[in-house]
């Protein structure tokens, strides 16, 4: 009787072990699948369009930002009004494989009225190292605008809107000429002439979080 019980028990163990092994394997697979689903989807080349692109030189890979601020033009130290103030900044995130993101920020304040625009575009970039040029081909993007005077807000306040075809390639693209990489005040800087003897300085920085 005991022998039969032991035989049956051993048989149960033999049968139960594969079932447990299979269950554990399925459970691990499900957990792994859940973890993968929580990971931010990887952006593919198609999200950036199929426009011209080239490999980006190592010295240009990363985020570059140029900004202008004129808050001091708004209020003088004696508190008197000095005219409208504005801030403007544009940044480019360049990837080795020729993808690019553009961030744009603009604000303007005049008396009690304030205008803000925050834009984001993505596309591809084609760089000619010898000619020192690169062209950006925008494939998609969106922006948010905000206008207010006092406590009033216009219709569409703060809404995110997509850029129309008039703001994307082939209607519009960005071209920077005669760029150079320089060390200015200890910072790696992308220097781009913009005409009339003036230049635009793009400083290497950290890409903003959307």
Which terms summarize this structure?
10 strands; 1 helix; 210 residues; 44% strand; ten-stranded antiparallel sheet; alpha+beta
Explain what you see.
By secondary structure, this protein is an alpha+beta fold. It has one helix and ten strands; from the N terminus they run αββββββββββ. Strands 1, 2, 3, 4, 5, 6, 7, 8, 9 and 10 form a ten-stranded antiparallel sheet that branches. The protein starts with a helix and ends in a 5-residue tail after the last strand. The model is unreliable at 1-45 and 71-75 (pLDDT under 50).
Question: pLDDT below 50 for ≥5 consecutive residues: which ranges?
Answer: 1-45, 71-75
Shape: globular
Listing every helix as H and every strand as E from the N terminus to the C terminus, the arrangement reads HEEEEEEEEEE
β-strand percent reads: 35-45%
Largest sheet: 10 strands, antiparallel
User: What's the overall average pLDDT, rounded?
Assistant: 74
Topology (elements, then pairings):
Elements: H1 2-38, E1 62-69, E2 85-94, E3 99-110, E4 113-128, E5 133-149, E6 160-162, E7 173-177, E8 180-184, E9 187-195, E10 198-205
In short:
With 210 residues, the chain is of the alpha+beta class. The protein is built from one helix and ten strands. Strands 1, 2, 3, 4, 5, 6, 7, 8, 9 and 10 form a ten-stranded antiparallel β-sheet that branches.
């Amino acid at each position: 009787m005991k022998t039969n019980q032991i035989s049956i028990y051993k048989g149960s163990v033999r049968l139960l072990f594969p079932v447990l092994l299979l269950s554990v394997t399925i459970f691990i697979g499900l957990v792994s699948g859940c973890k993968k689903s929580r990971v931010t989807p990887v952006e593919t080349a198609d999200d950036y369009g199929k426009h011209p692109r080239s490999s980006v030189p190592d010295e240009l890979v990363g985020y570059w930002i140029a900004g202008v601020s004129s808050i001091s033009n708004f209020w003088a130290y004696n508190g008197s009004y000095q005219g409208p103030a504005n801030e403007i900044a544009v940044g480019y995130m360049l990837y080795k494989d020729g993808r690019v993101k553009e961030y744009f920020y603009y604000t303007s304040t005049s008396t009690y009225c304030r205008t803000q625009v925050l834009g984001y575009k993505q596309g591809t970039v084609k760089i000619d190292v010898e000619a020192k040029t690169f062209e950006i081909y925008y494939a998609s993007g969106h922006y948010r605008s905000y206008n207010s005077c006092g406590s009033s807000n216009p219709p569409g306040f703060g809404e995110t809107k997509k850029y129309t075809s008039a703001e994307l390639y082939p209607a519009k693209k960005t071209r920077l000429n005669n760029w150079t990489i320089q060390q200015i005040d200890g910072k790696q800087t992308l220097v781009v002439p913009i005409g009339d003897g003036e230049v635009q300085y793009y400083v290497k920085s950290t890409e903003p979080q959307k």
